[in-house]
Design brief:
Helix content of chain A: 40-55%
Number of domains of chain A: 2
Shape of chain A: globular
Oligomer: homodimer
CATH architecture of the largest domain in chain A: Alpha-Beta Barrel
Number of helices of chain A: 13
Order of helices and strands of chain A: EEEHHHHHEEHEHEHEHEHEHEHEEEH
Radius of gyration of chain A: 20 Å
Strand content of chain A: 15-25%
CATH superfamily of the largest domain in chain A: Enolase-like C-terminal domain
Distance between the termini of chain A: 20 Å
Chain lengths: 354, 354
């Protein structure tokens, strides 16, 4: 047994996507992540991954990498059993790099739980060994999006997320996808592209057409909390905050002011520390929980799967980023069958750590 | 290794107090608690204790005991690694008996962590192995209270909690205690005895006299959230919610409406589940944390010590109830030296479980 951190290694990895993925804020054809390998005195290894998004979070990849490479060294010699104190220090040090928070906090927890022979999934509460994710259709021409959606349904997914960037486009593509895929259930994500009144228009029209919209996600500008509340009070569908929600402080204000029905937590925005706080605020204020991702490989998405499956409080799971990649990490803490993700136990995971 | 619950034993214990302890709501000369012994398949034991207060929480001892004895049997055969699901079920089943929530949730966590060779303190984050508690002066004649306070200071305590029940009494006894004990720092607790304007009067006068009041606790009726906010906005001292704060839902509303500066969490009011949520809400809303107790023995107070020391976020610790008892449980997860409480590790604890 040895709970002290002996070494932290940082490595950059790039994963090509199956096809270019476009949202209202921009397009990506590959995803570069920063992976952490944290080694305890006794040799136990904890892994973590940061998937910083410059477009979404303003996190500049090279800066995140530099910060992780240099600042993480301050944790050498620390005892991972004091994870609470370490998490708080990480919150302070990496507050402009939430993806780094997640990677380092998870690596600490992965090592700590490995040393005890359990997994972060069990640490979080072991609620649901199997969870179900949606899969996303990025912005493209309408016919291609309809084809993509049909393929996603063919792969076994029961919920499809649809990216949109304007009123006209949304009212064209969403009903067509619903028609072509049996109206199974859709998360419509504008990534801030609409004005509040436009968002209400989209929601009302899709509702009058009978489209089964489960969630209208981040319809308006991230700083426009009043706009979110305006949409929420008028939309027949639940309204979710995504880019408006990074920290526990954001969550408290959104809840206090009744701005949304749903919180979309992403560990790359919040780390484990703020992620946990947001869960508790949501449950205390009657807000539905969703979990999403940035551009993580299976290594990185394991963080969110452990978190969501271990806690069990998430109604909507959008953990599809590794499914959009043409390549993947060797390490993963889960197996996928259609849209079902099953958590692996510690023994199965250790075989995948070289 | 065996994580399944094989047996849960319930036992009632009565501890005599050193002297009758009086607050504005009533007096007690002994404390009856319900202790849980939860045994896993492999023989590992988890302990827990409920200290129900009829006067404060409306929990009727015999009913709590009956509920614990009968309903806890539904958990036989459950795997304690799924503690999140079990905690949620306990929240539902025992929602009128929060002291039972705490006892059963802690017993599950104690057994789970014992099986892994760690303690609930480490599970919560291992933040501070040593914490400092205040000690309380109950309501009595003024001279006796001054003597009691001097003795408490003599025992090494650096903060004294003073129970009061009226404006005149507070303005008489608090300055006298401050005079006699070097104005070291006081938590003034009215247990709802004042009207909002009376509470402001007490706060202003003690402030003008230079008394070092750290916290004015639960000055007004527990359901009068507007009254709490009225006092908070006018009091020169921080105002705390105690009896107003049981659940995560209470915490969210108190925070949303800006009612108090301080949350006094007691596991006997909230269990571990709501206790954790209240911590996260407080930290998200800039509210200071305090932890208190009902009538726990050292077995029961170990729950709160593990919680507070493990998390490390508590500014005020009022974990003195075993110090007011003439007898104590054999089991305790800590040692006391003056006002310092030091957490014991798993090996030291196991020696105390027969």
């Amino acid at each position: 047994m040895g709970f002290e951190i002996r070494r932290i290694e940082i490595e950059r990895k790039t994963y090509k996507l199956v096809k270019t993925f476009r949202i209202s804020l921009g397009a990506m054809s590959e995803s570069t992540v920063i992976q952490i390998r944290l080694i305890l005195n006794g040799g136990t290894v904890g892994l973590g991954e940061a998937s910083p998004s410059f477009k979404i979070s303003g996190e500049y990849l090279n800066s995140v990498e530099t910060a992780l490479r240099e600042l993480s060294q301050e944790f050498i010699g620390e005892d991972v059993r004091n994870y609470r104190v370490l998490f708080d220090r990480i919150d302070e040090m990496f507050r402009t790099f939430p993806s780094a928070k997640s990677a380092l906090q998870y690596a600490i927890l992965d090592a700590l739980t490995a040393e005890y022979g359990l997994t972060p999934f069990e640490f979080f509460g072991g609620a649901k060994r199997k969870i179900v994710s949606d899969k996303t259709v990025g912005i493209d021409d309408v016919n291609t999006m309809v084809e993509d959606a049909k393929n996603i349904k063919g792969e076994g997914f029961r919920t499809i997320k649809i990216k949109i960037d304007s009123v006209d486009f949304a009212l064209d593509v969403v009903p067509k996808i619903a028609d072509a895929t049996g109206n199974i259930g859709y998360i419509v994500d504008a990534n801030q592209a609409l004005k509040p009144k436009e968002a209400v228009e989209v929601a009302e029209k899709l509702h009058s057409l009978g489209v089964n919209v489960l969630v209208l996600e981040q319809p308006v500008f991230k700083h426009d909390y009043d706009g979110l509340r305006f949409v929420r009070e008028r939309s027949p569908f639940p309204v979710a905050a995504d880019e408006s929600l990074y920290t526990r402080y954001d969550a408290f204000k959104l809840a206090r002011d009744g701005c949304v029905d749903v919180f979309n937590i992403k560990l790359m925005k919040s780390g484990l520390s703020d992620g946990m706080a947001i869960v508790e605020i949501a449950r205390s204020a009657g807000i539905t929980l969703m979990i999403g991702c940035m551009g993580e490989s299976s290594l990185g998405i394991t963080q969110s799967i452990d978190f969501a499956a271990g806690l069990g409080y998430f109604t909507y799971l959008d953990l599809d980023c590794p499914f959009l990649h043409a390549e993947d990490s060797k390490y993963r803490g889960y197996i996928r069958d259609g849209d079902e993700l099953t958590v692996l136990d510690r023994e199965e995971r250790e075989k995948l750590k070289d």
